Amino acid sequence: MQYDQYCCRQNFAGILNLAFAQIRPDKSKAKTLKLATDAIAKSASAGADLVIFPEMWSNGYAIHDRLPQLWLAEAWDLNGPELTLIREQALRFQVAIAFGFLCRHAGGISDSCMLFDRHGRQALLYHKVHTCDFSSERVLKRGSEFEVCVLDTAAGSVRVGIMICYDREFPESARLLMLKGAELIVVPNACELEQNRLCQLRARAFENMLALAICNYPAGSDGCNGSSCLFDGRAYAEGDGGSRDMCSLLAPPEPGIYFSDLDLKKLRRYRESEVHGNAYRRPRLYHALCAENIAPPFQRSDRRSED
User: Fold this and answer.
1) Which range marks the domain in which residue 26 is found?
2) CATH number for the domain that contains residue 179
3) Is there a domain that residue 298 lies in?
């Protein structure tokens, strides 16, 4: 497929094709960037509207037992040549890209995800809010907000939010994104997606009536097991079809690029008629959720204080 054919590609059916780049980077930055550009080109050639990479893919989530100085040396600048190349690929292939990377910025270094639209424009930059402060991630600069953007894709516009790995452990993360209008939450990940975490992700999609697209590392990547997945957010079939399986993709452990479609028209119709999400919440009763001074008896004593 030639470059001008990518430029003309437009999907009017409201079907968002998602590509999950369940692959490992290389220790060499040059080879890593080549792997990224190859994955983007392959995904676009297969008709993808959005390509998703795993958490901190720029260095393969290589942070355990490492000094912060080394993390800083591996981090990418927001306006550096690496992200510029990813931006150029989005424009060249007319495909949106959610790219997980270790980010160097004015506030420090963060576990981040950059979302480019199909014109190569920055649609959203997210810094992980719930860093794993029980591990070496505690030296990272945490994000301070969950935001939603309107992402321009060849399938039309879609409202997208981002969570990164441990963020999914907190129902508040997905709830806030739903309240801000998210239809799709992209989740770069770097851990074992075993049955309990998969059930957790299914619940986030079910209770918020939105889609969750999770891209993980393949098996053999420091405890990861592949299993990149898409939960499309529609728990019930249209009409009287009863409940349905929201999981339209569960990738195998092996490395590869996996694809799944998200029907935005059906999701939007579902959200207009069903009873979950914001339909019958009672927020006046939830004040304790935001109280910092409440400490349950099982709470760990090594909690990191708020910035």
Assistant:
1) 15-274
2) 3.60.110.10
3) no
Report the phi/psi class of residue 158: left, alpha or beta, with left for phi > 0 and alpha for psi in -120 to 50: beta
The one-letter code for the residue type at 145 is E
| Helix (H/G/I), strand (E/B), else coil: 63 | coil
Consecutive sets of 10 residues in the chain, 307 residues long: mean pLDDT of each? 38 83 96 98 98 96 72 90 98 98 93 98 98 86 96 95 97 97 98 97 97 97 94 90 94 98 96 92 88 73 66
**Structure tokens that stand for 125 in this block:** 């930059």
Q: How, if at all, do strands 76-77 and 108-116 pair? A: unpaired
What does the DSSP 8-state code read for residue 280?
T
Number of domains in the chain: 1
CB 209 within 8 A of CB 233: yes
Which residues partner with 102 through β-bridges? 111
CA distance 204 to 199: 9
Centre a 10 Å sphere on the Cβ of residue 145 and count the other Cβ atoms it contains. 9
Q: Is residue 283 part of a domain?
A: no
Rounded to whole angstroms, how far apart are CA atoms 58 and 115? 14
First to last CA, the chain: 49
* Position 222 in a domain: yes
Residue whose C-alpha is closest to residue 140's, from 112, 115, 162: 112
